[in-house]
């Protein structure tokens, strides 16, 4: 099955003379690792928001895992996203008042399907969270401390554990390496790819950094169109 299928998609923000996004045709198969590259302002976040169902494109068709997004209500799209998409944010978006393990468990509160998968595989969501943290080299004594006490690299790995728990079919990673130093970037890329293979997830990875394309076999380059200065 196709993980993502886009046909004649365009998005134009109010006041723009030319659509920021214009994608004739894009098909990403389940299990693929796909790199989306583009300079600042080229529309990467706009595309991710469309793929996550947060934003409706101006025109065109979008199917995720065979589901036509335009046929879903906003609340059905929210649930579909919680069940099927693990999201790693550029600034990690960990909740500072929750412990490390509580942050990892958040998707299991939003999605019964992911809580069930975590329970089926590991006995309980908490056990699945512990496994994910352990396999991402977060030391056990840190599991119940505040995320604020972790290094940037550790916070990034906690954010990855949160995206992976309950085996979502798609992982979207939005510039997840921009806060890491060069050595940690390589480690993080290899670990993320391995984890996505383990759970057979499709990986969509977004970055302005062209050098990261070497970790992927398919890519899309976005370029900001010239806007009419009169508008
Ligand atoms: N909510 C919005 N309303 C109007 N215009 C927007 C909105 N969000 C983004 N844009 C415009 O769309 C264009 C692309 O923005 P977008 O954030 O998608 O780019 P990006 O490639 O993710 O950039 P960056 O790497 O800097 O985050 C920009 O010109 C931006 O001003």
Automatic annotation (TrEMBL):
Residues in ABC transporter domain copies: 4-228
Domain of life: Bacteria
A Pfam family of this chain: ABC_tran
Keyword Transport: yes
GO molecular function: ATP binding; ATP hydrolysis activity
Keywords carried by this UniProt record: ATP-binding, Nucleotide-binding, Transport
PANTHER family recorded: ABC TRANSPORTER ATP-BINDING PROTEIN MG467-RELATED, LIPOPROTEIN-RELEASING SYSTEM ATP-BINDING PROTEIN LOLD
Family: Belongs to the ABC transporter superfamily.
Protein name as it appears in the record: ABC transporter ATP-binding protein
């Amino acid at each position: 099955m196709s993980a993502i299928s886009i046909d004649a998609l365009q998005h134009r923000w109010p006041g723009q003379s030319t659509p920021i996004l214009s994608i004739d045709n894009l098909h990403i198969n389940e299990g693929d690792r796909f790199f989306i590259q583009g300079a600042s302002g080229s529309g990467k976040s706009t595309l991710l928001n469309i793929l996550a169902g947060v934003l409706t494109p101006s025109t065109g068709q979008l199917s995720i895992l065979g589901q036509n997004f335009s046929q879903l209500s906003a609340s059905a799209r929210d649930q579909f996203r919680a069940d099927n998409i693990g999201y790693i944010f550029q600034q990690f978006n960990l909740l500072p008042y929750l412990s490390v393990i509580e942050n990892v468990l958040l998707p299991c509160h939003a999605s019964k399907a992911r809580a069930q998968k975590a329970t089926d595989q590991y006995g309980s969501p908490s056990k699945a969270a512990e496994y994910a943290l352990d396999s991402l080299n977060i030391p056990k004594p840190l599991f119940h401390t505040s995320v604020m006490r972790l290094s940037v690299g550790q916070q990034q790995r906690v954010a990855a554990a949160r995206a992976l728990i309950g085996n979502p079919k798609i992982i979207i990673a939005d510039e997840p390496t921009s806060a890491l130093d060069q050595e940690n970037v390589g480690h993080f890329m290899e670990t993320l790819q391995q984890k996505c293979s383990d759970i057979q997830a499709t990986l969509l990875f977004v970055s302005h950094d062209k050098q990261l394309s070497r970790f992927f076999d398919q890519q899309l380059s976005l370029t900001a169109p010239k806007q009419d200065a009169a508008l």
